Amino acid sequence: MLDKIASINGAINGVVWGIPMLVLIIGTGIYMTLRTRFFQVTRAKHVTSQTIGGVFKKNNAVKTSKEKTSISQFQALCTALAATIGVGNIAGVAAAIAAGGPGAIFWMWLSAFFGMMTNYSENVLGIYYRRKNSRDEWCGGAMYYLRDGLGSKKGCAVLGKILAVLFSIFCVLASFGIGNMSQINTISGNITSVFNIPALDRNILIGSMSINLYELVVGIALMLLAGLVIVGGIKRIAQVTEKFVPFMACAYILGALIVFITNIGKIGEVFGAIFSFAFGFRAIGGAAIGLAVKNAVTWGFKRGVFSNEAGLGSSVMVHSASNVIEPVRQGMWGIFEVFADTIVVCTLTAFSILSTGLIDLHTGEMLSANKETALVSEAFGTTFNIGNLNIGGAFIAIAILLFAFSTVLGWSYYGTKAWEFLFGTKSTIIYKVVFVVFIVFGATMSLDLAWDISDTFNGLMAIPNLIGVLTLSGTVVKITANYVSRTFKGSGDKPMLSAFEDIQAEQEQKLKKEHH
């Protein structure tokens, strides 16, 4: 039975994460980049000043929210990054290099460059079509712009509702797999192997099941920790991630920078290998060149999309909960999110691997027998090992613990919002309790199939979302043009803040107060 499920899932996964899907995701990014006239480049200075630059300004709405039921723009970013900066930034990058060679990194950069505008578009639509729930909290995401945006087009009302429901179902299912059990399983495996405690490392019988005691203890501890945060809702999740994510990301970036600076002499070789292998210049023979480029492109794009989730419609749900008034402002945080996740964190992981002699930069051959997480541990170990102490391995184990746990917190919110769309606000406590309980299963079970199935649902989310982004691309262009006209040309155009008249009027009043 399990073999049959695995076989069916493998076939679906091959389509969901196949070349056509990657072309659709990257194609959407290219299309939105062209339609917004390369907004991520032409307005780069403005994007920086309004996003990360705003964090360092005094008395602004970027860092704090006066509204009791909404979170600040920075908290929205941190919660989104909590979900996207995960195991993919460590193991995913290593897998891309192992399978696609150093050239995969170039294509990962390219996917991020265009992915910035996909994420931007999702966030603009998320804010424009968001509504308030019975608790006066903002609710937005692909399901809302599919139902109310696509659904408002002639003859598309039923299609919009169906796609909104499908997106929500895929999101709930993915949240238990890629957002919960697979992350927890990675944490559990790392803790039990790196921090060996023989007294706990034994099997016990619970009913007819044999369970490892150490994994069970880790699972219960993680369940209690996560439960305290998740049941408290978005305000508590945001308060935790606001402190947690900057520390986590900065610690990892600092560690990777030390590895990179230690091997700074290889910077030319590393860049040379990335660009040469990206276009197959170092492959021998015509067929070999074609295969080398295909592998580099496929793995680079695949891991790039996996890493920053641009196009999946996931992070827009938390961005929509922010106190922002202008849709374009939150869109700009989407650009920064992809930049931070892929251009910064993934690049540093790649440089750590490529600069430490684990790969032959002339032939692209792997010189290490390690894979994924272990490959990054080995790279860090070349700099951080002292005597017999594997400090590099311990550092990566802790990084994965933090990255994966933060992903659980972020995805718990995505699942909650999808569940809320399907079953109503009051029923979300059911989802939260079940989600927290599943953490123990994640820590104690073998999850290869669960990971593969959740991977499929994760990809399936992208299909309805991208239909929404593409069909509503004209709306994104109009909102962007409206913002640019008012901000840079001083026009007196009426701001485009919401698709709904009552919310538009309310937000206009707030905008006037902000300007005064």
Descriptive account of the structure:
By secondary structure, the protein is an all-alpha fold. The protein has one domain. It contains 23 helices and 4 strands. The strands form 2 sheets. A two-stranded antiparallel sheet has the order 1-2. The chain has a two-stranded antiparallel ribbon with strand order 3-4. The longest helix is centred in the middle third of the chain and has 38 residues. The mean pLDDT is 85.
List keywords for this structure.
516 residues, mainly alpha, two-stranded antiparallel sheet, two-stranded antiparallel ribbon, 2% strand
Describe what is shown at a glance.
Helix content is about 70%, strand content about 0%.
Strand order of the largest sheet: 1-2
Estimate percent helicity: over 70%
Query: Strand-residue fraction?
Result: under 5%
Question: Which term fits the overall shape?
Answer: globular
Mean pLDDT across the residues is 85
The total beta strand count reads 4
Instruction: Supply the number of helical segments.
Output: 23
Structural class based on helices, strands and sheet pairing: mainly alpha
Total number of domains: 1
Distance between the termini: 66 Å
Radius of gyration: 23 Å
Which regions have little confidence, pLDDT < 50, spanning 5+ residues?
none
**Helix and strand sequence:** HHHHHHHHEEHHEEHHHHHHHHHHHHH
Tell me about the largest β-sheet: 2 strands, antiparallel
How is the secondary structure organized here?
Elements (H helix, E strand, L loop, with lengths): L1 H15 L2 H17 L3 H4 L1 H7 L1 H4 L17 H12 L6 H10 L3 H25 L2 E2 L5 E2 L2 H8 L7 H38 L8 E4 L2 E4 H18 L2 H30 L4 H12 L7 H23 L7 H4 L7 H28 L17 H13 L6 H33 L4 H17 L3 H13 L1 H10 L1 H16 L12 H15 L1
Helix pairs in contact: 1-20, 2-8, 2-14, 2-21, 6-12, 6-16, 6-18, 7-14, 7-17, 8-13, 8-14, 8-16, 9-10, 9-21, 10-11, 10-18, 10-19, 10-20, 10-21, 11-18, 11-19, 12-16, 12-17, 12-18, 16-17, 17-18, 18-19
